[in-house]
Specification:
The complex is a heterodimer of chains A (about 110) and B (about 120). Helix content of chain A is about 0%, strand content about 55%. With about 110 residues, chain A is mainly beta. Chain B has about 120 residues and is mostly beta strands. The chains are: A mainly beta (about 110), B mainly beta (about 120).
């Protein structure tokens, strides 16, 4: 199965921009990259999704290089409420031809006042 | 509209007992996914259903685990002869799965504790 890795943790101060990178060497050709946010005792919540280049929505940007072997989630001007664990998610089309969904190892972001 | 719901929210059981976990996906979503999250760990993919197609069960951790989806809607994850290492939060998600952009929407999870 593909391995999808992220930094274990990051600290930031309020108002700063935070960039979290996910490495996904075995991403499937047609698969999208999705990022989720998870607070304690809750299910993951969708943040942003992209296929290549750059995607931006009201809460984040996602940068994907041409080879798509990594992606970077960018959170502009973080606040204390952004303290959470962030996961990337990609699909892995295994040798059996069926999909398995691989979450990254997760990055615990702590925003400090 | 209503999101993904799961029941029970918490389940405490004794080692060796069977448990059933239920997931109600968002209405109209054709794909349904099960994940497991052990304490302090990341998310482990277990299985997914697309419509009425037979799922790939190779992600299930042992033959004690099984899942079914009736009528293309509600799904049940069954764990037989539970072991302490089965203790985890079991998360369900659903998506439209009409294209490659299948954003998964997660339920709140069922916290399973095996004593």
């Amino acid at each position: 199965l593909a391995k999808t890795t992220q930094p274990i943790s990051m600290d930031s101060y309020e108002g700063q921009e935070v960039n979290i990178t996910c490495s996904h060497n075995n991403i499937a050709t047609n698969d999208y990259i999705t990022w989720y946010q998870q607070f304690p005792s809750q299910g993951p919540r969708f943040i942003i999704q992209g296929y290549k280049t750059k995607v931006t929505n009201e809460v984040a940007s996602l940068f994907i290089p041409a080879d798509r072997k990594s992606s970077t989630l960018s959170l502009p001007r973080v606040s204390l409420s952004d303290t959470a664990v962030y996961y990337c998610l990609v699909g892995d089309l295994g040798t059996s031809g069926t999909y398995k969904y691989i979450f990254g190892t997760g990055t615990r972001l702590k925003v400090l006042a | 509209g209503a999101g993904v719901s799961q029941s029970p929210s918490n389940k405490v059981t004794e080692k060796g007992k069977d448990v059933e976990l239920r997931c109600d996906p968002i209405s109209g979503h054709t794909a349904l996914y099960w994940y497991r999250q052990s304490l302090g760990q990341g998310l482990e993919f277990l299985i997914y259903f697309q419509g009425n197609s037979a799922p790939d069960k190779s992600g299930l951790p042992s033959d004690r685990f099984s899942a079914e989806r009736t009528g293309g809607s509600v799904s049940t994850l069954t764990i037989q002869r539970t072991q302490q290492e089965d203790s985890a939060v079991y998360l369900c998600a659903s998506s439209h799965r009409t294209s490659w952009t299948d954003t998964q929407y997660f339920g709140p999870g069922t916290r399973l504790t095996v004593l």
